Structures are given as C-alpha cells and as structure tokens.
Amino acid sequence: MKHRIGRARLAGAASVFALAGILVLSSASAPRPRPVGDTHSVALQGSPVELVFRSLQPGEAILAFLKDGPGVRRVTLQVRDAKYVLGGTEWGAKPFALIGIDVAAKAEPLDIRVTEEKTDGTLAHFDEALAIEPKEFPRQRFNVAEAMLNPPPQEQERVAREADLVQSVFDIFTPEWMATGGFQSPLPGRKPFPNFGQLRIYNKTRQAVHAGVDIAAPWGTPALASNAGRVVLASNLYLSGETVIIDHGRGVFTFYCHFSKILVKRGDLVKRGQPIARVGNTGRSTGPHLHWAVRIRDVRVDPFSLVDLPLD
Question: Which of 6, 113, 172, 269 shows its CA 20 to 30 Å from the CA of 207?
C-alpha cells in the first residue's frame, strides 16, 4: 500500500519553520497534525507509529514513537539511507527514534519506508511521504581575521585533519540510548540568537551556512551538558576553538565550541545539566559566546527543535 501525507511545493530557499501550516494534505481522509504543547503530532496511516515535531521544514528534529498496536512486534522506518528501529530487542531498541531534516534539505516530499514485523513473524510494508515546507533563512556579513578565513599554509593540514576527525566522530553509531529525559539549553535562562540556518558571508567573499545556534554569555560562564551521554571529543580545534562533542546514543550528538576552558575529557560519562566547560572566545569567534549544534545521524538540525520534543 502506498499513500502520502501531503506534498510540498518546491521553494527557492531552505528553512527551519513556523508552527502553523505543517502538512499540505492530499485528501480529506489523510491524517491531520494536532497540537501537542508547542509541537504537533500526526499518526502514520495504517501503522501504530506517531510523529511529533515543531514543524516539518529543513533543520527540524522529529520524534517517532511506537504506540501499542495489536499484533505488532516492532516497526522499522527507512529514511534516506538510515534505518530507525522502534521496539523489539535489536540493539536494545527503544520504542522511539529521533529523525532529522537537514538544514539544507529541499522543500520536497521526504519518503519513509515503513516495515511492520508482526508477532506471528509476517511482515507488512508501506510508504509515507512527509511534506517538507520551505522557510527563508537570514543573511549576515562578518569580518574576521584573514587567517581564520584562509588559514596559512602551515595550518591548512591541521584544519583538514581536524575536519576529518570531527566527521569521524559524527559517523559513530552507538546502539545504546544514554540520554535521560528531554534535552535542555546548555546556558539556561540566556536567550539564543535567532541565527540557526543563517547564510554567513565572511569578508565579502566566503559563504557558509550556520548550522548551530549562538548564545552570548560572559567569559567563564559554566556551560552544561544538554543531556546525559559520553564525551567523544574534548579538544582545541583551529576553527571552533576549545570544543566538546557528546554522544547521546542512537546517532544523536550535541556539539559545543569556542570555550575558554574544558572541564571534561574524552570518554567521560556526563549527566544532564553537568558543567562541561566555560564560555570563551577561542577559534573563529568575534566575542564570548557558545556555539551549540546538534547532529542526528549526521543531519544538521536546530538544537531547540530537539529541546521542544516531549522526550520526558
């Protein structure tokens, strides 16, 4: 059986998204999203799977969870080249998964292949398509030291090596879910800049998409782990300065940088709300602040789209 939850219009720019107009539905009988606090939810037709999200746009996180379904042992969702197992015992699977829509994703249907494993051993397959809507991201110009924009020859090998190192970290898949409850801001009470997805133009020549959120704070302010997990990187990098990456399991990572001092080391298990470093201005930075980012299976999403999901 093949059916679709709406179809998006193509748009010129990628986007994060508003809280209204989530799905463009193709028929009156298709499921409609309903508000759940600051999020919306929709059930996949013919399946005991429900999706919860702020909106369906580039840069957003989606919570998929398995409800009680008669005769269903587990459900596997295939999204792009990634599989998400809900329920069952494979990899100690939980009845939920986190899925990301990349900040650079096009406003076009996102196909999901659904496989249900019944308690009698039979399988059922069907397809869904989520309607991804567009949003315009802001633009801003920056002037930075030329050495940070174009590293000198003696530093170029370091920059390339560190880029490979960070990518190898994000390629890790830890089967265990180590987070506890919902995610929180690493600087509670401090207002983030609305700059996720911002197109940045450095020194009038170089363009880059800002795939995180900046939060200003005085030098030395303690930054907290947004959830429990394992520290997989704690090091000084040329562009991001003093940097910490935490693996929360199931392909979910939080990334923090520009610190003045790191308080943890690689391999440490940290708790939600534990101080991990102090705010600074290291790397390519124009003032004391924290750059906070999230990767879900190497997909770049707005950290606050993860915070808003009801993981408690």
Answer: 172
For domain 139-307, give the CATH number: 2.70.70.10
| Residue 189 to residues 181, 217, 246, 266, Cα–Cα distance (Å) | 19, 10, 21, 28
Tokens of 45: 């037709």
Euclidean distance between CA atoms 11 and 115, whole angstroms: 31
Task: Determine the CATH number of domain 34-130.
Answer: 2.60.40.10
User: Rounded CA gap, 258 and 278, in Å?
Assistant: 9
Neighbours of 68 (CB within 10 A): 7
Domain boundaries defined on the chain: 34-130, 139-307
275-279 vs 222-224, strand pairing mode:
antiparallel
CA-to-CA distance for 302 and 299, rounded, in angstroms? 10
**Which amino acid makes up residue 76?**
T
202-214 burial by CB neighbour count: b if 16+ within 10 A, else e? beeeeeeebbbbb
Global pTM reads 0.84
| C-alpha span between 110 and 107 (Å, rounded) | 9
pLDDT tens digits along 103-158 = 999 999 999 999 999 989 899 998 999 999 998 888 888 777 777 777 888 899 99
Residues 287, 247 contacting (CB under 8 angstroms)? no
- In the chain, the amino acid numbered 30 is A
pLDDT in tens, 281-304: 999 888 999 999 999 999 999 999
CA 259 to each of CA 28, 112, 243, 255: distance values in angstroms, whole numbers, following the listed order: 52, 39, 7, 12
